From TrEMBL:
Signal peptide: none annotated. SMART domains: AAA. It is found in: Cell membrane. It is a peripheral membrane protein. It holds the Pfam family ABC_tran. Residues 13-243 form the ABC transporter domain. This is ATP-binding cassette domain-containing protein.
Length: 339
């Protein structure tokens, strides 16, 4: 302990029962997190789930209304100055000065962090190159697109390469090529010793990057574990059935559950049944059983589970229906441990 001011052997993040209340709504409603150092940890959830608010509390930018959190053992409320030296945050805010060029902004950041003049310049050039911004380096920031800003923002957070980096939806709105580039950069950060907590709305992003994830919904962690664990709890694939006659819905559902041995979800208005599917061949059995019962299908598909299905399975509601379903937020949810 003595000289280890960073406490880097401690978990990068430990949060216990974090709460943030805005007006009457509990944006973050008792979030527990434990992130070991050296990993990429994904926080997966739909818009409005409480991801940004959670990060802002962990990054000392917002005071929790309840619970506590430590970064490498340092309390975010009692030791914010130490915490700030251990973290980098990228997100919705970016630049020093809009009228300055990308290079100038990075040089200023570097100088602020104590790099010498020539080292700052070298670092800026290196990062601009790495992020494919060399061409635009001399342009003032106010002419940068959203994607370019995002890349510059991440580049700036890499100058110091802090032990813990928060990336808030680093790829939302990026084109596929830039997105892949961003993934590579994030992997490189971790390979060179940082711990990364990233938020995302995309299951495949969590799948590509994260060693572990927490699924967050309406301010609560509803599942935690490895991505594989999460996927197997949802099923390796997801079967979707749309039946022709809505009156057959109940009977169809019974048959699906019986043949596949699983619990299904339905969206009644569309007459659609969704079920986790472990083995592909069971589909044949299912089709035979449905035909024998005289049930006609309109549509059948087998897909990799999407975030929507993960949510449907874990919460019993989809990602989209937020506002309508808001009233049951007081219902205690069973927290599922998936790995
Ligand atoms: N400063 C704020 N004032 C009031 N409500 C807020 C504020 N910031 C976030 N919220 C609300 O808190 C909830 C969680 O928001 P947020 O943490 O931004 O979710 P996410 O990042 O997962 O999309 C949302 O309902 C949002 O409208
Ligand atoms: Mg957000």
């Amino acid at each position: 302990m003595s000289t280890n001011m960073g406490g880097l052997s401690k978990p990068a993040i430990e949060a216990d029962g974090l709460v943030k209340i805005f007006g009457t709504s509990r944006a973050v409603d008792g979030v527990d997190l434990r992130v070991e150092s050296g990993m990429i940890y994904g926080v997966l959830g739909p818009n409005g789930a409480g991801k940004t608010t959670t990060i802002r509390m962990l990054a000392t930018l917002l005071r929790p209304d309840g619970g506590s959190a430590r970064i490498f053992g340092h309390d975010v409320v009692k030791e914010p100055h130490i915490v700030r030296q251990l973290i980098g945050v990228t997100g919705q805010y970016a630049s020093v000065d809009e009228t300055l060029s990308a290079t100038e902004n990075l040089v200023i950041f570097s100088r602020l962090l104590g790099l010498g003049r020539s080292e700052a310049r070298r670092k800026a050039e290196e990062l601009l190159e790495e992020f494919g911004l060399s061409e635009a380096a001399k342009r003032p920031l106010k002419h940068f697109s959203g994607g370019m800003r995002r890349r510059l923002d991440l580049a700036a957070s890499l100058i110091a390469q802090p032990p813990l980096i928060f990336l808030d939806e680093p790829t939302t709105g990026l084109d596929p090529r830039t997105r892949t580039q961003m993934w590579d950069t994030i992997r490189r950060l971790v390979a060179s010793g940082s711990t990364v907590l990233l938020t995302t709305q995309y299951l495949d992003e969590a799948d590509q990057l994260a060693d572990r994830i927490a699924v967050i919904d309406r301010g609560q962690v509803i599942a935690e574990g490895t991505v594989d664990g999460l996927k197997s709890s949802v099923g390796a694939s997801s079967l979707q059935l749309r039946i022709s006659n809505p009156l057959d819905l109940t009977e169809s559902r019974r048959i699906v559950e019986q043949v596949l041995g699983v619990t299904t979800n339905i969206s009644a208005e569309a007459g659609k049944i969704t079920a986790p599917l472990a083995e592909g061949d069971k589909v044949t059995d299912l089709l035979i059983a449905l035909r024998e019962s005289g049930i006609a299908l309109m549509e059948l598909s087998v897909q990799k589970p999407t975030l929507d299905e993960v949510f449907l399975t874990l919460t019993g509601h989809g990602v989209e229906e937020d506002a309508a379903a808001g009233t049951d937020s007081s219902v205690l949810k069973q927290k599922e441990v998936i790995a």
